[in-house]
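The freezer alarm interrupted the setup, so I double-checked each line after restarting. Inputs confirmed:
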Amino acid sequence: MIKVENLSKKFDGKFAVEQINFEVAAGETLVLLGTSGCGKTTTLRMINRLIEPDFGEVYIDGKNVGRQQPELLRRHMGYVLQNHGLFPHYTVLENMSVVPKLLKWDKEKIRERSMELLDKLKLDSVLGKQYPSALSGGQQQRVGLARALMADPPILLMDEPFGALDNITRADIRREFTELDELVKKTIILVTHDIQEAFEMGDKICLMDQGKVMQYGTPEELLFKPQSTFVASFLKEHKLLLELKSLKMGEHTAWELLEQLEPGKLKEILLTSEG
Amino acid sequence: MEESQSLAQFMVQQSGKLMSQTLTHISLTLLSMVFAIAIAVPLGIWIARSRKFSGPVLGFAGILQTIPSIALLGIMIPFLGIGPKPAILALFLYALLPVIRNTYTGITGVDPVIVDAAKGMGMSKWQILIKVELPLAFPVLMAGIRTATVINVGVATLAAYIAAGGLGEFIFGGIALNNSNMILAGAIPAALLAVILDFLLSRVQKLSLKRVRVAYLLLPFLFILFCSFYFLPSKIGGRMLAGFTPEFMGRQDGYLGLKEVYKLQMETVVVSDAVKYKAAYEGKLDVIDGYSTDGRLKAFDLITLEDDQHIFPPYYAAPVVRQDVLKKYPELEMVLNKLSGLLNDEEMTGLNYNVDKLKQSPEKVASDFLSEHHLLQSALPGGKGLIRIGSKVFGEQYILAQMYKLLIRGYSHLDVETKTGLGGTQICFDALKNDQIDLYPEYTGTGLLVILHPSPSVLNGIPKDKDAVFGYVKKEFSRQFNLTWLKPIGFNNSYALMMRRKQAADLNIKSITDLVHYIKEN
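Predicted 3D structure, all chains:
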């Protein structure tokens, strides 16, 4: 559905993104994973042409996006930003109506769709008349997603959608989002620096560093067949977490194992857990 | 008596005039603001888009802001003449900077994330501007409009100097005539106007732009409509137009006398002394007031109309000096009297012409004249004391001040400091009375009517000949203020009405009575 070929972008003569290639099938979620400055956001923004690439092409359903009018292109791609990007002078409902209005939907249809989404995203319909500043961070992020989903676009671009939330809220909302029926059918490209998020949400992960793809594949491929020491060390901590979690599926939970440890042994584990 | 009149009485008495001045004032301010907004907001948006132009554009608007208002008005007269047009243009230029700057600040202050979101959702540049950037920048933008409006209410008072009307007519008339009721009758409404407009705009500022889209667009047009209701002062086709200074407008030996004695009724606008001659010369005005020895009379080919019913008293010029200074430096009187009787009307007009038209410096004209009359001596060593000479703001006074300076330096051991350009009669007189200057050249008629302003019965008792008036002011100045009038210089710089030579000849108008008849018949 989305195909990226040799995508490159230079800022001040230096490559921010260099020769990126990947392909996302319809209904799949691709996670662009990496530390800040690795080029993942730049890559995302070249897909909806917020940034114009220096070389390379992006195809959606076989059509080159570079040949389409950017405004029209963007109206069919949901876009969720890290700091939600809600219009402070618009109420929740008005924020949600932006794209449908651009698409010239009638009022009744906009209203019905808004109510449906508020309900699905567990937002009280009373909030519809509120301004974003009156909402909690989690609510703002839900509205940000609702706004992107309003016109039911086949593609959703998400730039660190949970980045502004605290850890607990983030995990909750992420879980909710992954269970949302609206998102199941969508082709999603999600940018994050959070490995757990990447593994929870991604059908495929594209691990980037310094503008280049370090490895592109399923979470399992990255975990079990790292193509370089960079990939292996990047995922190291997560590996440990997964190991612990996988124990849960066995006879004992990790906690039960830990409880049986002799005094002083915990420290030893922490210090020797390198490999 | 006018002095005992309260402010309220004055305002009631003048309510018709006050109303029309206020409406003119509002029209000037609002029209200029509508134009300024129409230009400055797009300009502000443009420099927010192309940041490299923001420096030059804001810099240029800043320079406009620093030009003194009266200078800006003066610069425009050759292009736009007098009246509301140059006034509105000047006000427009003053309003540019605050509006451009606040539009720019407002737009650039919009959170880039929000603009990014708008773009990412597929809004076009125009939609982003109208639906996102302008609404979010609106409070800042409105703050700029408020600043500019308040500034313009103040600056619009100066429009009175170029016949554009407004509350400045009362304010400057009041200053010139030392009539505090008149000043306040102009200043209080002007201040109220600023406060009210600011308050109304603060209400607009609180509006959420996305809700009042239509109203917002209509507002400026309502303003224009509103303004167009009240015609701004302009020359009405075919009829004659008079332009008088604020001082002349309020003087018994001026416009008031013309109305009372001659029953003159003609279209009249208020102009500043600085622009009226040129305006008359260019046909923008047909009748102006002026001084009979003014060099510009010659320069602009104007003639004076005969005052056949004698409403203008004699205006013989003589130095007025503090008595304590004369006592301290007795030689001063002799030195100052050297000029007495030396200058007749024609000679003074000639000297004024040299300054006003030939652009010679008053210093040069003064020293040339003295050397011609063998009165120019090189300066003696000073140190004995300091004499401060004042003068009003026109060529003749500058020349006289320079002559006295040269005489004092040449014939005494006193040092001299000149304080030229003291606004008007009242300012000069107050400076003298309060020991800030020691002498200045004054005119007998002015001393009589502006400073002493005796009651009508006393005034009628004074014969209108030069010696009687001189005697009266000399006596009263000495008695009331401890000031001495020295011997008259010789010329009579009387008030006079003036017209273009050709027009006066064509219409066969020689005296003020002729003028009154002509206007009645047409």
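Quick read of the result. Chain A touches chain B through 25 residues (CB under 8 Å).
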